[in-house]
Amino acid sequence: MNPFIKLPFKILLGTLLFVSCTNEDNNLPIEDNNVTYTNTIKAIIDVNCTGCHASPPINGALMTLIAYNNVIEAVQNRNLIGRIEDGSMPLNGSLSSTQIKAIKDWQIGGLPE
Fold it and tell me: Omega before 8 cis (within 30°)?
């Protein structure tokens, strides 16, 4: 392959890899006025938390987060939102600002199912 073609190809490939590997890519489309456990929060928790907070919990997790009542308990009594905001949860990464906002909006909205 011609060396003058290799360089632009490498630059293009590097740019595509860089742009496609961001945390914001896993954002869910969220309607601020319609955040419920079923339509928004469950998907966030399932993707980011149930790897450890399964039933039974594994990897040192202290509680399960597989059902609506488990997540409400964690929000109301176990500082789930604070742990997400300070980055201590999830252990294997972090939630996007949109996902954190959805969970906070859900709490403010009364934790609808």
Answer: no
What is the Cα–Cα distance from 22 to 94, expressed in whole angstroms?
Answer: 11
Asked if 67 and 49 count as a contact pair (C-beta separation under 8 A), the reply is no
pLDDT digit string (tens) for the chain, length 113 residues: 555 556 555 554 444 334 333 344 444 445 556 899 999 999 999 999 999 999 999 999 999 999 999 999 999 999 999 999 999 999 988 999 999 999 999 999 999 99
Q: What is the DSSP string of 49-90?
A: TTTTSSSS--TT--S--SSHHHHHHHHHHS-HHHHHHTT-SS
Task: Tell me how crowded residue 94 is: count the other CB atoms within 10 A of its CB.
Answer: 16
Buried b (16+ CB within 10 A) or exposed e, 44-54: bbeebbbebbe
Nearest of 23, 71, 29 to residue 49 by alpha carbon? 71
